[in-house]
Write a structure and sequence with these properties.
By secondary structure, the chain is an alpha/beta fold. It has a single domain, classed as Aminopeptidase, CATH 3.40.630.40. The chain contains 5 helices and 11 strands. Strands 1-3-2-6-11-9-10 form a 7-stranded mixed sheet, with helices on both faces. The chain has a two-stranded antiparallel sheet with strand order 4-5. It has a two-stranded antiparallel ribbon with strand order 7-8. Strand 7 and strand 8 form a beta hairpin. Helix 1 crosses helix 5 and helix 3 crosses helix 5.
């Protein structure tokens, strides 16, 4: 059923889940894991967004496998994890408000009817009630870490589809960084050394900038803390066995990257 929240003062009601799930916030690891596209919930007032149910199983609605990969990393590293529960088709929590695809009208060929002709107020509702609470939790956590004199390394966990718009993506791992590439380079060195047969690339299949991303520029670059946006190809982590395998591979490389950074005095 297609619905519209235009007449509502809020987009979330008491029957909707909260937008943020925080796990292991007292973890001892220096890593903070975030997963901006973990969930695919839709506020009840928005119905089904006008999108077929099968489309909500695709990468357009969420990052396939990223939630369970993040949970596995949190357990292996004893790292805090902050996840977003709502679908990126409702609001993309890794985009600034001004980005056109913060509220996508079409994604990989799929039209999102409810998102067409959104008013400024409707966009602001979603941003204020879903996007910003997630980033407020992330920001508060990092501020508390800094106030306590504890180190913080930000790891934003994502997955990507093997083929987009007819273009194959051969890499299995992508490391995204822009103004500060120190940790990305250390991770790449550690991962490639331990896994010479696995293809890994810097700034593939995307790049990071101030309009196409939010977490890295706002929470990583602005704070001057080590960070990466980590992309794993989703055919590698769609199933539980792959999630377990890749959690171990990534955890080992993250630990190795910290050791390399310490050796260099970064």
């Amino acid at each position: 059923m297609l619905q519209n929240a235009q007449q509502e003062t809020t987009v979330l009601t008491g029957d909707d889940p909260g937008p943020v799930e925080a796990i292991n916030l007292t973890g001892t690891s220096p890593f903070l894991l975030t997963c901006e596209h973990a969930g695919r919930a839709v506020p009840q007032l928005l119905g089904d967004l006008g999108v077929d149910a099968a489309e909500m199983d695709r990468h357009i609605a969420y990052d396939i496998g990223a939630e369970n990969l993040s949970r596995g990393l949190s357990a292996l590293l004893d790292a805090p994890l902050i996840m977003q529960r709502y679908s990126r088709l409702v609001v993309d929590c890794n985009r600034p408000f001004e980005a056109k695809d913060c509220f996508p009208e079409i994604s990989d060929g799929t039209v999102v009817p409810v998102n067409r002709s959104l008013s400024e107020g409707e966009r602001r509702q979603r941003f204020d009630e879903i996007h910003q609470p997630f980033h407020q939790v992330v920001g508060t956590f990092l501020d508390q870490r800094k106030a306590a004199g504890k180190p913080a390394i930000l790891i934003s966990v994502h997955s990507f589809t093997p083929c987009l718009a007819g273009t194959d993506r051969p890499w299995l791992v992508g490391l995204l960084a822009n103004r500060d590439r120190r940790f990305a380079e250390a991770f790449m060195t550690a991962f490639a050394s331990a896994n010479p047969g696995i293809s890994i690339a810097h700034n593939e299949p995307y790049t990071v900038d101030d309009l196409s991303d939010y977490t890295v520029p706002v929470h990583g670059e602005a704070r001057g803390i080590p960070h990466i946006l980590l992309e794993i190809r989703n055919d590698q982590i769609a199933q539980p066995d792959g999630q377990v395998r890749w959690a171990r591979l990534v955890a080992d490389a993250l630990t190795g990257a910290v050791a390399l950074m310490n050796e260099k005095g970064n």
